[in-house]
Design goal:
By secondary structure, this protein is mostly beta strands. It is about 0% helix and about 50% strand. The relative contact order is 0.11.
Length: about 190
């Protein structure tokens, strides 16, 4: 779906399939507004989901399996959101994620690639990332009002995690770098 000279606003999209899910590509010259999207498959490959525009406003969950979910613009949460790419699928953000809602990112064996930050303009309510996550952004930051829960986060150029009223819970935080390791800054009620 393309809007080379305008915006796109969509209701729910469902391309689930028993054997394989259908791919979903959305490109707009301006803003993209999304409701729930599902391209999952219970036994095969889900569909690839890729969204591009000047800003992506998300108001529903996104789900696929064994395929990537890619956001090629800043993301604004308009509701509590769960983004899931099961199996070997991945989730990738090219830019920031903001909004006053809860965000859950869930991958099994795939990777969550994070852009320039989470909550850098508007702190999220909470952030939960299940699986491995990484960012190459200088001084990558996550800011929330509530809890930050991570499994493994790698940010070679440094990272800052800040929770105003909650805790920070992580299995592994790494800023290992070939030359100079980045700094780690943590601020929360419980760490």
């Amino acid at each position: 779906l393309q809007a080379p000279a305008g915006a796109i606003s969509l209701g729910p999209i469902d391309t689930q399939g028993i054997l394989n899910g259908g791919n979903i590509g959305i490109t707009a010259a301006n803003e993209v507004a999304l409701s729930p999207i599902s391209a999952a498959s219970p036994i095969g490959e889900g569909g690839k989901i890729e969204i591009s525009g000047t800003q992506i406003t998300v108001s529903g969950n996104l789900t696929t399996s064994n395929q990537p979910i890619i956001f090629n613009a800043p993301v604004l949460l308009a509701a509590d959101i769960a983004i899931t790419s099961a199996g070997a699928g991945s989730i990738a953000f090219a830019d920031s994620i903001n909004g006053t809602y809860q965000l859950t990112l869930d991958v099994d064996t795939g990777m969550v690639t994070l852009g320039t930050g989470i909550g850098n303009l508007t702190p999220l309510q909470s952030v939960t990332i299940s699986g491995n996550a990484a960012s190459e952004s200088p001084e990558f930051a996550i800011a929330t009002l509530g809890n930050i829960q991570l499994q493994n986060l790698t940010a070679p150029q440094g990272l800052s995690l800040s929770s105003q009223n909650g805790g920070i819970y992580a299995s592994l935080l790494s800023t290992v770098n070939r030359t100079n390791a980045g700094n780690v800054t943590l601020s929360g009620k419980t760490i």
